[in-house]
Amino acid sequence: MAAAAATFSLREVLVAFAACVSEQRAVRVDPYLAGWKGLVRFLNCLGTIFSFISKDAVTKIEIIENYRNSDQREKYLTVQSMVEYELANGLVDLQKRSKHPDSGCRTFLRLHRALHWLQMFLEGLRTGEDNSKTSVICSETYNASLANYHPWIIRKAAGVAFCALPTRNTFLETMNVGTAEEAVAMLGEALPYICEVYKITEELYAQHKLLDLT
Ligand code: 1PX
Fold this sequence. Notes:
By secondary structure, the protein is an all-alpha fold. The protein is about 65% helix and about 0% strand. α3 runs antiparallel to α4 and α6 packs across α7. The radius of gyration is 17 Å and the shape is globular. The structure holds ligand 1PX. The site of ligand 1PX has 21 residues, from α3, α4, α6, α7 and α8. Keywords: Cell membrane, Cytoplasm, Endosome, Golgi apparatus, Lipid transport, Lipid-binding, Membrane, Nucleus, Transport. It catalyses: N-(hexadecanoyl)-sphing-4-enine-1-phosphate(in) = N-(hexadecanoyl)-sphing-4-enine-1-phosphate(out); N-(9Z-octadecenoyl)-sphing-4-enine-1-phosphate(in) = N-(9Z-octadecenoyl)-sphing-4-enine-1-phosphate(out). GO terms for molecular function: ceramide 1-phosphate binding; ceramide 1-phosphate transfer activity.
């Protein structure tokens, strides 16, 4: 675990999300996926009890990566171009999942919803008391966000996994950005980037009525 943890630093996640928004306020897909990959690496350091979560995240990252490696890769450069391309070509199941079960729009929406949880969780960590419980911050923010989209069995499994989370200070130190205070400062730096990416995507999906894709 120590060796794996040493390869993770929250800094790489910060750098990735900071690189997401272009001058035209488009959300670049490659750094977005790089940010998630960094988060998944971190999650894997926390123990095998989280594997079912990281596996699902990896599956979704790979679906979008495959689009980025396909002949249509240019269409998937930004979330804006992906939405435009998939909608214009009838590649999104708008009513129910059928012909295009793994569209980029649908898959990205899953990560986008998880980003909302992440934003709230990191803010909870940043502003929490020294001795506060990561498991409580995690379950409260999960229940207020992602849980609304998950069936009972997933919510139950997630709740059990959260109990395995270390205390806030140990958690902050695992981020490999120095002391707990330094990690808190890094969170303060990272959050505005994550919030901006979330906000732009949310507006785009709302504008195209894509927020409920099943
Ligand atoms: C510095 C702090 C970093 C913390 C890192 C945490 C990384 C967490 C990665 C979570 C990625 C979750 C993606 C979930 C996508 C999703 O909602 N999938 C569901 C729906 O997909 P479908 O294709 O069926 O429509 C899917 O059913 C999910 C299955 C797996 C369980 C997801 C539980 C998510 C819990 C999120 C909290 C993670 C706790 C991490 C502890 C730090």
